[in-house]
């Protein structure tokens, strides 16, 4: 069957106007935030119901057409890129909050609900959805589940999987499964819900999710602290963790801060220039708690771990301090950064970063390197910025040649080549550095059960 005939048949499965083939739509919906692969989808399909999703999946099985899920397309691993004539299944029209249970503190929603939409709904109900990151205003819950999104609150609240009470999924066969039925306790065999969380759409599509909510935090307060070197950041983390229950602990380099400040959107936290900065957040529920934070700050200064610092005194100042960290990714995107999203256990972070930094310094002497990340949970973001006079393909090729040494170091420390961005296509060739050959074989076998014809997000996670 020709491509034109395939598209015409696909149109009969959905409502009028819900299959797009114009060049602008193919480009917009065929990519995510990565720039490694050119989008080349066959068409963009917009289902509005579970039944329509099932129909599209069965059609794809019949004609052996690959399907790529599309949410907010804010991913950083090319997991939502359609580069080989696949049909993109976009969930923009499956974007409703369906039900709320105040006793169970759960929200049942469609996959196209935007993260910020769920956060706002929880706030209206006097509750809190804690999974948060810079792309919360455009990322969708289905995509968050597909990548097991983390973000800035993991040290306190964990990853997305910690907040998924139940799922409805359409498998690669087109079957509809209801997983876990929103139960807190359920000891009835395999928890297949967990298989779909982080699977990047390779097993099937999430078509409905029940998300847990938490109590609202009280008087969130942030501190930004400047340190003389990276080695001082971990003692600062330990000092504050001994006294306070932190909701976040982030770090960024002076180069990252300089890029954000150059935008002119937010003021510098203080006048002292420092090589590294830590941003921590806690609930100042009492004056004593705030006093304890200040006393810990003074202790860190006395120990030489901190050169200067500031603590938010208002909601606006809290937002401004967070912008110093949250604006980094968007700001450096101008330089087409080559990103590595790597992690180790927290105790191994100092030695690990020294080894990685030595590799970077030796191999990228002429490139600008920006460090930041969720260091409180062992997650580091290494960003190498493309020089203006270097072509994209040549730049990516230079970066890729050093990946082997970077990932060998990750393997040495029993870490992960992808802490929160997923594998997609950008990390699939390096999966063996974090997973054994036996593990990968079992993962492929699991995929074959749910997706026997290999139509679900083909070419992602596993190298073709």
TrEMBL record:
The UniProt record lists the keyword Hydrolase: no
Gene3D superfamilies assigned to the protein according to its UniProt record, in alphabetical order: 3.30.465.10, 3.30.70.2190, 3.30.70.2740, Uridine Diphospho-n-acetylenolpyruvylglucosamine Reductase, domain 2, Vanillyl-alcohol Oxidase, Chain A, domain 4
Cofactor(s) essential for the protein: FAD
Record's signal peptide: none
EC number, as in UniProt: 1.1.99.39
GO molecular function, one term: FAD binding
Enzyme class: oxidoreductase
Residue ranges of every copy of the FAD-binding PCMH-type domain listed in the record: 37-216
Catalytic activity entry: (R)-2-hydroxyglutarate + A = 2-oxoglutarate + AH2
One BP term from GO: respiratory electron transport chain
Keyword Metal-binding set for record: yes
Superkingdom per UniProt: Bacteria
Assembly and interaction partners: Homodimer.
Family: Belongs to the FAD-binding oxidoreductase/transferase type 4 family.
Protein known as: D-2-hydroxyglutarate dehydrogenase
Organism: Pseudomonas mangiferae
